[in-house]
Fold this protein.
Amino acid sequence: MNEEEFIAGMRGIATHPFARGLSDDAAVVEFGGKQLVLTHDMIVEGVHFLAHDPPADVAWKLVAVNLSDLAAKGARPIAALLGYTLGSNEWNRAFVIGLEQALAAFDLPLIGGDTVSVPAGSLKALGLTAIGETKAAPSRAGAQPGDGIWVSGTIGDALVGLDISRGRAFGDASLRNRYRRPRPQLELGRMIAPLVTAMMDVSDGLLLDLSRLAAVSGRAAALDLDAVPLSDAFAAVRGRTREARVAAATGGDDYELLFTLPDGAGEQVQALAAEAGTAVTRIGTINEGEGLTLTDSEGDVPLPERLGYQHA
Amino acid sequence: MNEEEFIAGMRGIATHPFARGLSDDAAVVEFGGKQLVLTHDMIVEGVHFLAHDPPADVAWKLVAVNLSDLAAKGARPIAALLGYTLGSNEWNRAFVIGLEQALAAFDLPLIGGDTVSVPAGSLKALGLTAIGETKAAPSRAGAQPGDGIWVSGTIGDALVGLDISRGRAFGDASLRNRYRRPRPQLELGRMIAPLVTAMMDVSDGLLLDLSRLAAVSGRAAALDLDAVPLSDAFAAVRGRTREARVAAATGGDDYELLFTLPDGAGEQVQALAAEAGTAVTRIGTINEGEGLTLTDSEGDVPLPERLGYQHA
C-alpha cells in the first residue's frame, strides 16, 4: 500500500461529514452551536525544510503552514498543540526561541502536545495541531461555472527562496523569507470567506492546488498564465518568461489563498485585500467540464509533467 | 537544552489557562459555552512500541493512549486527526486495518491529519490529536489532605506484556494485550469525573504518575503497596512479593485511572465502576506536606531509583 493507496484508505475510513472527505484544508466540527476548525500538518526535514535551515525558522514554518489552513477556512486561530521529536540541545534551544516568536506574532496560545526522545540523528518530523473558529467555512468544492479564479499576493517567491537557501541562486533576502517564514493570510481569509464560492491555500503548487479545487468542485479551470502575479524580486532572478511562470505556478510553499468568486464580487474583494495589506489578482475562469488548461499571450501552454509537489 | 529544559521552556511559553500549565493530561478549551478537551500524544518505535509489534496493534495503541487522556478528563471523544509517517507498503496496509478497527471500537471519527513520506528505514513517530467534550474536567491538582488515593483495574500487566512481547517471559495472552491493546477507561472516567478531587491516567508508572499528581496538588501521597491491585495473570508470572509490586507500580503503560476521592465517596465510585465493568481500589491517602511514601505489611518501603518511565 503506497502513499496514494494509503490516503485512499484514510478517505475510506474518514466518512464523517466533519472530515470533508479529507479533501479540504481542515476539518470543520460543529460544537456548541459554533464552527470549530481543526488542522494537523507535519513538516519533515528534507521535505518541508532543509537540515541546515535555522531551527527558529522551522518553528515559524510549522506554525505558519497550519495557520494557512485555518486562513483558507476564514478562521480565527484559538490555540495550538505541538508534537515534537527532540533534537540536539542547540537545535532545541533555537527552536523554542523561534516557536515563542511565531506564537507571539500570531497571538496563538500553545496549550498542549507531546515531546518525545528519539535516537540522535533521527529524521526530524514535527507536527502541529491548530484549532480556530469560523463563521463561514468555505470548502474547496463550491466553484461554479463562470466564477473567476483569484489568488492573493505573489506566486513563486518561495521556489526561488528555496534555491537561495540551497545555494543555487542569488536573490533578494525577501525571497528566502518567503520560503522560510511564510505569512498565512489570516486576515484576508476571514474577510473574504463569506464572499468566495471555494477557497484553499496554495501549498503544493498553484497548478496542482487549482487542479484539486476544480476536481472536487466537478468543474474545469482555465488559467491565464500571464496573469499569475510575480514579484519583482522573483522576476529579477527568473524573469517573466513562460518557463519562469510555469516554474512559479508549480513551485509550492506559497501559502497564499486561492479562491473563486462569482462575477461582480471582484471589486469588493480587491478593496478588502487592500485593507488586509495585500493584493488579489484574477488569474482565470471556472468552466463546465473537468481538467485544467493553461494559456498565455502566445496561445495554449502544455501542462508540465508535474503540477506541483505531490506529497500528501 | 535537554528534554527537561525543553519542557520547562514549553511551560514558559504555554501560559494560557487552557494549557493548564502543560501539567495535565489534556488541554481544556472553553468554546461555545462548552468544555472542549484536546490532547496530542505521539508514539515512537523503540520507545512506545517495538519494531516487530503488529502495525494493527500500533494503530490501536496510538488511538488508545490519546483516548486515555480524554478519559482522565471525563470526556466523551468527538474526533481525531492523524499524523502519519509512511512506512513500507505492508506496514501501511496493516496499520490502516488496525486503525479502522480501533476507530470503530471507540466510535471515533477520523476527520483529518497529514501523511508524509520519509526515507525508507526512518524511525516511526506517529501522532494523534483527539478531541472530546466534558461537563466537568477534573485537574491533577485538586487532591486534598485526607482524600483516598484510588486506581482502576489492575497495575503491572503491561509491564509483563512487554516482557512477553520481547520474548523475555511467558504468560497469559491477556498480559501481552494489555501492552499492545490498552483499553482507555472512557466510561468510568465520564461517570466519576464529577466526584473526584483530582484525576489522571497511569501511563508512565503508578509511582511516577502519583508523585506528579501529589506535586501539582501541593500535597504528600502515602501509598500502601500491598493494596496495589495485581491481576492473577501478573501474579502467575511475577508473584505478589514486594519486588513484584514495586515493578508493577513503576512499569507504566497501564492506562488505568488514578484519582483522589473525599472520604465517603468510595462506595458510590465502586458502584459506578461495577456498572462500567471494572473495579476501583483504594491504594493510599493524600496528606499535608510533599513527596511520596511507600509502605507495606512489613513497614516502610524505600522508593525505587526510578519511579516510572521518565520520558516526557
